Amino acid sequence: MLMFKGSLEDRILIRERYNTYSDAVFKNDVESWLANYTDNGVWEIANEKHQGKGALREKWELLWAGIDSMAFFTEIGSIEVEDNRAAARCYCHEIVSLKSGKIMKVVGLYEDELVKLHDTWL
């Protein structure tokens, strides 16, 4: 089983997409975060599926209502590119500072499907 497949250029662009995603979370910047998704993109979190930028924004705002700040680190496990589609696996470590004063540490897994639109991976 290949862990990394496809052109180096595409794989670097996908890694940069994950970096952009992480940066948006660190900054609590919903607009930058939404820019990582297609218009009908899907975000599955806590066994809930949210589709479309409106639904994603709504879930983001609900989650961030109780969050003061978040550190969000990613590690890429695999990227497999075929034409203008890709599958990627990413592990994340979140350190969440809640408005209540508590700190929450989370380790997560992203199994993503990406699409290249107008030379941009989303």
Set out the fold topology:
Elements: E1 4-5, H1 8-27, H2 30-34, E2 42-45, E3 48-51, H3 53-64, E4 67-82, E5 85-98, E6 103-117, E7 120-121
Parallel strand pairs: 1-4
Antiparallel strand pairs: 2-3, 4-5, 5-6, 6-7
Q: Short description, anyone?
A:
This protein is α+β, with helices and mostly antiparallel strands.
Structural class: alpha+beta
Low-confidence stretches: none
Order of helices and strands: EHHEEHEEEE
Shape: globular
How many E-type strands? 7
The overall average pLDDT, rounded, is 97
Relative helix content: 25-40%
What would your notes on this structure say?
- It is built from three helices and seven strands; from the N terminus they run βααββαββββ.
- The protein has helices at residues 8-27, 30-34, 53-64, and strands at residues 4-5, 42-45, 48-51, 67-82, 85-98, 103-117, 120-121.
- The strands form two sheets. The protein has a five-stranded mixed beta sheet with strand order 1-4-5-6-7, with helices on one face. Strands 2-3 form a two-stranded antiparallel sheet.
- A hairpin with a 2-residue loop joins strand 4 (67-82) and strand 5 (85-98).
How would you describe this structure in keywords?
alpha+beta, 7 strands, globular, 122 residues
